[in-house]
């Protein structure tokens, strides 16, 4: 009975977190759609630049301490009071450097004074990051408070901009709304933590915070490099091309990052099964990763195909007619989604083997590619060039992570396993482009044709999907042992 209760609690917590994430993203999409339709493209581009900078420096301030704190309090509740004071103190130390750095960076990017002031207002919101103790509530399995926090923050931002932003002349009020939303989130955690766990008392000693910063360094580096890879194109576009191109890239990037979140959740959910399979034998792992790669190849490429065909329609519907030109950027950028799904098999396998340092190497290689390719491609094609650089970066991460996974883990699916869905998408996409009618009709036809080609071109696909659906229960069992030879390629 205890196991069942634990399982129900786990499902409940997941639903709370995912539900809060979904609602907050929905509110966020509505808020930014309002801004895109209210502000001129150049002003909206300034908002996207400010958001990108604040999200990156928030990762810097968090400094990889969330998993460490959640782990510690989950293992020993006696550490709650000490860590609840030391982690915010450590983060305030980082914030003292990060906030001036963010303010200085926007000046180095040679932006107009209105953009500089907007970014400075967004930087003040980073003061609330140390107060946002999500890790504490997660470690104590108090997920509902984290879920409410996600919705509260975005709701405060949305209400603020709808109340005061009427045109591009109100640009700085967007920064004020962000600052108010950040203060709302910080106050929420300050009050709830004091009522439900322990009063907020930052550590007055530097010994504990310094030790935590040293411990979180390896995790922080990986997270910072990942964040840099995601937001570097926005910075390069702002420096080389200006706010209008940032608006077109940022609007497409926002949609793609939401899609990529589902890929992250997929691999995170599959990770326990991957770890168990690797612990049993290489054959059991192959029986799991083969079907998984096929499923994500067909799903990821299928989604990218549909978004490519509907890029202009999606951007016009979400952001308004002025952003229809961002459809081309979205059509390119969405191909990072299947590439991230592919590389996820190698990256999570390396983590399961305890070789996560090679994941960092792959991310560094990807970020370097974004910088080098971005300098050239953005100068040539603007926002579309930034999308090309990010697709190239995702490909490099996959290739590098795959190479290390073959050395440290064993055989793992690669190009051959993605060939059939890629060729099917190419053929269907070319045929859909010949259709002289509404784009959404062509997309529906393409989606149906692509889905029908799956089991025709890959007759093991249905069986592989069934095996994958029962992966967690069948690892080590007879169902996991039945795998086609193709899965191990």
Describe the fold and architecture.
This protein has 489 residues and is mostly helical. The chain folds into two domains: 1-240, no CATH class; 244-489, no CATH class. It is 83% helix and 0% strand. Helix 4 (80-108) packs parallel to helix 9 and helix 14 (357-381) runs antiparallel to helix 15 (383-408). The longest helix is centred in the middle third of the chain and has 38 residues, at 243-280. It is globular, with a radius of gyration of 23 Å. The protein starts with a helix and ends in an 8-residue tail after the last helix.
Task: Outline the fold blueprint.
Elements: H1 2-38, H2 41-62, H3 65-75, H4 80-108, H5 113-124, H6 134-139, H7 143-164, H8 171-196, H9 207-240, H10 243-280, H11 282-319, H12 326-333, H13 336-352, H14 357-381, H15 383-408, H16 415-433, H17 439-457, H18 461-469, H19 471-474, H20 478-481
Proportion in helices? over 70%
Rg over alpha carbons: 23 Å
Q: What ranges have pLDDT less than 50 throughout 5 or more consecutive residues?
A: 1-7, 476-489
Q: Given the C-alpha coordinates, what overall shape results?
A: globular
Please identify the structural class as seen in this structure.
mainly alpha
The biggest beta sheet reads: none
Q: How much of the polypeptide forms β-strand, as a percent range?
A: under 5%
Q: How many structural domains?
A: 2
Strand/helix succession: HHHHHHHHHHHHHHHHHHHH
Number of strands: 0
The averaged pLDDT comes out at 85
First and last CA, distance: 42 Å
Number of helical elements: 20
